[in-house]
Amino acid sequence: RYLWPLLSPCAPLPTPEAEARRFVTSYDRAYGGRHPLFHEGSYAHAAREAAASYRFLLVYLHAPHHEDTPRFCREVLADDTVLDVANRSFVTWGASVHSRDGYAQALTLGVTCFPALVVLMHRSERERLLVGVVQGRQQPGPVAEWLRAAVAASVQHMARARAEAQRHEQAAQLREEQNREFDEAEARDRSRLAALEAERAAAREEEERARRDAAEAEEAQRRREGELEAKRGRVGDEPAEGAGVASIRMQLPRGLGKVERRFQSTQSVGVVRDYVEVAMADRGVSLESFSLCTNYPKRTLGDEARTLEEEGLVPRAMLYVQDHDA
User: Which residues contact 244 (CB under 8 A, 6 or more apart)?
Assistant: First the structure.
């Protein structure tokens, strides 16, 4: 008669939690609410709670159709002493042997006579120690004494289990702390290595930039020297005084004084500009942007292609070199 709920092909199987709640509801309806505080979850949940709280697990296997069950529920489980011991020292879990969870525990624990109380000590959900069993017709006083004796006989086991659990917890905390410290040290090392690599990369980039700038400066210097040599070649040798020669005095910028030089009257204003750049470079000064101006009348020689004769600079002239960057 205990197997038919398990083998019925029609109804869906309830969960262990639903069976536990159904058991408490049906028990209260049949015998009232005076009973140990039944855990309203599966056996596994009750075992975990007992192990976590270092209490014993009291299992009540209920046989609703057994002739001894009503008296056991109304007299034994409702007894003040039994209630006090059960609620103080135990996590109590009850189930009908008609339920899957209750039937499975009855088989596992080897209970053959009902109703039955089983005292278990759980070190974990699966690791348990059978402390004692009472089955069949019982009196409240002996059951209360049996519960107290079961607790007293196993208290050392429970203390060792608690100490072992505390050692495990302390070891786990130590490992966690060590792992955290290791992770933090590793993170610091990674951060230092990243910072060092960033510094090295920045140094390499700076070296590369300096090398590139130096190469560009060297190339610019070679280009500038080449341009100056080309301009020196266009200026040519200074002609002797005579017809067709213009003698030009030039006031240099930046306090470099005056220079005087003769040119062919057919040479262009651009040649005079080339001469000014060469003369400034010979004095160690780079002149990038400038213009040539006359004072009387005041004008700027803007057309480099015009000859000195066309600009009216023959036979003599005074020019002012205006530095646009000054």
Answer: 264, 265, 266, 314
What 3-state class would DSSP assign to 170? Answer: helix
* Closest to 308 in 3D by CA, of 255, 253, 239, 218: 239
Torsions phi, psi for 168 (to 5 deg): -60, -40
CA–CA gap between residue 215 and residue 182 (Å, rounded): 48
Q: How far is CA 182 from CA 178, 179, 188, 195, in A?
A: 6, 5, 10, 19
Query: Which residue, chain included where needed, has tokens 């014993």?
Result: 56
Q: What share of the chain is helix, strand, coil (3-state, %, to 5)?
A: 50, 20, 30
Distance from C-alpha of 74 to C-alpha of 56, rounded to nearest angstrom:
23
269 near 303, Cβ under 8 Å? yes
**In Å, what is the CA distance from 4 to each residue of 79, 219, 284, 288, 308?**
33, 101, 114, 109, 128
Question: Distance between CA atoms of 230 and 235, rounded to whole angstroms?
Answer: 9
252-274 per-position pLDDT tens digit: 998 888 999 999 999 999 999 99
The pLDDT of residue 107 is above 80: yes
Dihedral angle sign, alpha carbons of residues 157, 161, 162, 166: positive
The phi, psi pair for 132, rounded to 5°, reads -175, 165
Token digits of residue 22: 């159904």
- Are the CB atoms for 119 and 147 separated by under 8 Å? yes
Q: How many CB atoms lie within 10 A of CB 220?
A: 10
253 burial type by CB count under 10 A (0-12 exposed, 13-18 middle, 19+ buried): middle
Geometric angle at alpha carbon 247, from 324 and 272, rounded to 5°:
35
Q: Are 93 and 38 in contact (CB under 8 A)?
A: yes
CA angle (299, 266, 293) in 5-degree steps: 15
Mean pLDDT for 12-27 is 91
Q: Are strands 245-251 and 258-264 parallel, antiparallel or unpaired?
A: antiparallel
